[in-house]
Amino acid sequence: xxxxxxxxxxxxxxxxxxxxxxxxxxxxxxxxxxxxxxxxxxxxxxxxxxxxxxxxxxxxxxxxxxxxxxxxxxxxxxxxxxxxxxxxxxxxxxxxxxxxxxxxxxxxxxxxxxxxxxxxxxxxxxxxxxxxxxxxxxxxxxxxxxxxxxx
Length: 151
Hints:
Elements (H helix, E strand, L loop, with lengths): L1 H13 L13 H6 L12 H16 L2 H16 L2 H16 L2 H16 L2 H33 L1
């Protein structure tokens, strides 16, 4: 019985995934973009292969200016400390949970903000931060009051 379970387990491990993409099924341009993954392509999970294929397709559709922007963003991401990266990933995950219409409203507001002069952006950020500090202080004060009542 143990041998049968072991053989079944081995078959499961070495059976290729049904949805896996074969390297030779990728276009030559996609293969060129993804060449760093060629040697380990067959070991990557199917969902990772698909994400890489989609990314390669997007890359190939970008003009030179957009590619430069993406590379700059990637460089900036790499320079962030790991804690900041984690925080940003969490914020992005929260954003993805918001309904699509609200996401679009936030994107539009962000785009409008980006088009403002630097001085106006700074003033708005200062105002936003002051408002948030007041809220945070009020919450902290409320917590202290609750804690003091409990004792």
